[in-house]
Amino acid sequence: MTSGSTGPAARRPGIRSRLSAAAPAKINLVLEVGPRRPDGFHELRSTFAPLELADTLSVSIRGGDGDELSAPGSDTLSIDGPADVPVQGNLVLRAATLLRAETSRPLPALAFRLRKRIPAAAGLGGGSSDALAALDLAAAAWGLRLPVRRRVALAAELGSDVPFFAIAGWALVRGRGERLRRLPAPTGGRLGVLLVVPAARLSTREVFAAFDASPGTNPQQPESRAGSTPHGAASRLARRLREGASAADVAAIQPANDLLPAAEALMPGLARLRRDLAEALGRPVHLTGSGPTLAVLYPSPRQARSAREAVLDGLARGALIAPGGSAEVIPTATVRDGVARAPHGVASAPHGTDGRPRSTPSRTPARTLRMTEGAP
């Protein structure tokens, strides 16, 4: 914290007028869910991996010169992407409002622009990743120094998945998402991931409610196991990664997501699509998060790209039928060691070892974006 500051986020000289960063998606390779806790959340154990698939968030000072000082609620957000992504209540604006409250000084209004590539409400963490990017970009634009632990604490206030993006790398995630342990990426190269995203959507709240109502769940016994995933599956995968598991090893793991039965019960056709994909591709098919996105893992990104054509052909012929009548088929790859790549032609804000973006002129070509090196 800078000397003479009055709050946990201390002002640094030189408000910056324009920054941009990539906000990567995630997948859950394993998701164990315990019963609902007294506070309404569930005790989770999950293995998360960040993906190359990413949104792009940029921010500038409204007015351009940083002289206009504004109150909360004056920040703006424009979205390039699907029309069903709301501006009202978006986590990007909530992140800016939360950070503004960290200092007693008046701060300029911010104008955010979000280019959506990650399908919304699909279990890929796009909104949570956007929130963390907004927190970092707002801090940099306002010249605020945000200590690492406070950054993670603010991320947890924004949502259960947001802290994961604060460490940006493979992680074992526990609690409601706020307890994280960094994991090494698989050896031997990046993992290829083929995402199949049905046009129909699932509500995370409704999926968890269906999980709570399932046989064997006892909300009065938070320490008991409620899901069908073998107990300790997330920890076992974490141990394999620490022991040097290869991309081929991880690509062969069996699906383990306690929310799968609830998601399939709520979305007619999802179970059939999952079975048909497994038969057509000859590989295990995973549900990521609360769904409805299905993920197929491959030892390399090239194999995931090749498999995309087979899935598109199956959808066109009617051999594969997606809930909602159609599906996005997206080949991507996991990110190694917390490094995401900004989309081509978009200036990025490389992060230092403290996890904050550094200023990058808008004319700068795309470059590597390091989200953070630290862990809580």
Explained architecture:
α1 (91-100) runs parallel beside α2, α2 (126-142) packs across α3 (148-158) and α5 (204-213) packs across α8. This protein folds into two domains: 10-184 and 340-370, Ribosomal Protein S5, domain 2 (2-Layer Sandwich); 192-333, Alpha-Beta Plaits, CATH 3.30.70.890. Helix content is 28%, strand content 25%. The chain has 376 residues and is of the alpha+beta class. Mean pLDDT is 82; it is low at 1-13, 218-225 and 339-376. It has ten helices and 16 strands. A hairpin with a 5-residue loop joins β2 (18-36) and β3 (42-61). The two termini are 17 Å apart.
CATH class of the largest domain: Alpha Beta
Radius of gyration: 21 Å
- Helicity, as a percent range: 25-40%
* Main β-sheet description: 6 strands, mixed
Classify the secondary structure makeup into a structural class: alpha+beta
In round numbers, the mean pLDDT is 82
Q: What is the count of DSSP helices, taking H or I runs of 4+ residues?
A: 10
**Any idea how many domains?**
2
List keywords for this structure.
6-stranded mixed sheet; Alpha-Beta Plaits; Ribosomal Protein S5, domain 2; 10 helices; 4-stranded antiparallel sheet; single chain; 376 residues
